Amino acid sequence: xxxxxxxxxxxxxxxxxxxxxxxxxxxxxxxxxxxxxxxxxxxxxxxxxxxxxxxxxxxxxxxxxxxxxxxxxxxxxxxxxxxxxxxxxxxxxxxxxxxxxxxxxxxxxxxxxxxxxxxxxxxxxxxxxxxxxxxxxxxxxxxxxxxxxxxxxxxxx
Amino acid sequence: xxxxxxxxxxxxxxxxxxxxxxxxxxxxxxxxxxxxxxxxxxxxxxxxxxxxxxxxxxxxxxxxxxxxxxxxxxxxxxxxxxxxxxxxxxxxxxxxxxxxxxxxxxxxxxxxxxxxxxxxxxxxxxxxxxxxxxxxxxxxxxxxxxxxxxxxxxxxxxxxxxxxxxxxxxxxxxxxxxxxxxxxxxxxxxxxxxxxxxxxxxxxxxxxxxxxxxxxxxxxxxxxxxxxxxxxxxxxxxxxxxxxxxxxxxxxxxxxxxxxxxxxxxxxxxxxxxxxxxxxxxxxxxxxxxxxxxxxxxxxxxxxxxxxxxxxxxxxxxxxxxxxxxxxxxxxxxxxxxxxxxxxxxxxxxxxxxxxxxxxxxxxxxxxxxxx
Lengths: 157, 372
Known about the structure:
heterodimer, A: alpha/beta, 3 helices, B: alpha+beta, three-stranded antiparallel β-sheet
């Protein structure tokens, strides 16, 4: 299905929660209000004709210039062979977004990774711990203003 | 032993354990021989590749992609090169495209050979491992004569490949392709249809199609569950749409569709198909440039793309954001093994301890791309 059509369906169903459609990215991006992200994702997964059964990729992006933190969901449907990316922009100083774990269980690990590297808090997540960095690591390494520590325990970094 | 209570025992398996295929730690809760829970701990090989990418120029990052899935470095190079090319919008010469497919498919065979070999070693049969290594040696020699490296090739570059194939490459590859099918038959006689091997794998850890989607399982693991999904067919890149090959799917030959034996067998079937593809590509090979003319300093226009390719272990994707400078603004690596491993907690509930080894082996994970 064309991104324009998907955006049309979404804006009708969730009026006021859709912000913008950006077509010059690949795949096209739809900007969504953070508090609506679970409902939108569940709708995209379940609705006939859309059926985005796979959460292909979930990434964090630090938009320091705009003082924002973005969470990007790449969704795909193997049945209809279409892909779309859903974006939510959060406040950089206090990034919070509800978890989509209940929609796609794989989001459990993806969200832990974004929390680990960007410090985005996924509200309602069942087990929000660091996943790639050591448990006692301080700071969020993928942020643009991250300063490397000089030492970690007994090692020089 | 990590701790006990009245009924359950907690055992830490790994990070240094031969059957975890790298440094993976599994905190296993057992009730006698039966597992009541498995908690994976990853990150031991985390090198911060995504952060490193933000400090390097686009071509400088290519060798780092070798270190993602080091058993299929060509395929990782390819996916990264395609991502940057998509942003740059360049046309790749036909000869370079065919060379890329040849290398990617040869690497798929060598990766599956290791998967086949190490899985058999996990199951207590050591001979097949040596068989797998023996045939892989041929492919390593082919790669060595092409680019000098045997594991981390850095051969597929942005714009094409780093150099043309040397004299004698085609003959040697044909020699390998003539020799290889008989070997697959040998593997089947030795291992695949061995009664003990089947008993240990059939009906173990069945992944249903719904679970496969929910947990983002891709590659042979997904196809074993009966889903005919291969990016080479579904979203053809390079010259895959001109090639004639089958996509094997799990049929539950020895038990249920999507069990461990199906997942193992997918790799054997795919090796046959890949050999078939390489043969077709050698016939198609024509004179031409091995790389497109691209400038030394790459500055892709601002924008973002998500490009994916079918790796031996599943879908490898790169989410790349460019701000118009010579370095990526953000590069997210979507590694197939990361999602494939996340299903293990669900699969390993209620199975026997020895089956856990079969599950890890049949998922065919590789840790460097999980940890990045």
